Amino acid sequence: MSGFAAITGEPDGPPTLPPFGLADGIAGLTAAYAIMVALHSKNETGKGQVIDLAIIEPILTVLGPQIIAYDQLGELQPRLGNRSSNNAPRNTYKTKDGSWLAISTSAQSVAERVMTLVGRPELTEEQWFASGSERAKHSDVLDEAVGSWIAARNRDEVMQAFEQADAAIAPIYDVRDIYADPQFAALGTIATVPDEELGAVKMQNVLFRLSDTPGEIRYAGTPQGHDTQEVMESLGYTEEQIQDLRDKGVL
Fold first, then answer.
1. Burial (CB count <10 Å: 0-12, 13-18, 19+), residue 105
2. Is residue 11 part of a domain?
3. Pick the catalytic residue: 12, 24, 166, 212?
4. How many structural domains are present in the chain?
């Protein structure tokens, strides 16, 4: 209902849902931010606040200027696959050795360097090439030029050539690539957390690193009922009362 699925997928294909809880994750991050704002306000005023946050609103916000575009221009954003209505070439391309690479040329200078790199500098002389939105209208021509050049070469060769040309490119990673990437390792993006049941567990680390209080994940999660005894005792229940509740199946 946020509009995400309506603009995701190929032009001639169905609306596409994310294969994970995208709205949930964005709403969680937004809620954390809202809590911090409310606490800051409490420090100033001494009063708490009720936070009213619908799961649908944060994802709608990050989807871009669709609301104002429809309001002012009556425009509906179409499904474009991996392409963009604002620039081209922008797509994913398959290499000779079966890898996938992503390219985006939002800057005019990058688009010109890419077309020179792939051996089609004459396209940069076309009148339509001077504008990102106009280039997007000629995506078929640009994709054929870039895609055919990449398809004839292996991933490492393509990556090296693009980097030497100062042109933006990135490999399409799956989780195995994330595990192996030296930059993720240097950042500490994957944390190893001890767990009572599973031993060492790998997971995403904290989202950012603060200089004085960098943060850490203390535990991966505890089994159901792990803290029941401590919680009940903190509420004033005696050992006999807790055991009685256990015997009755309440705990």
1. buried
2. yes
3. 24
4. 3
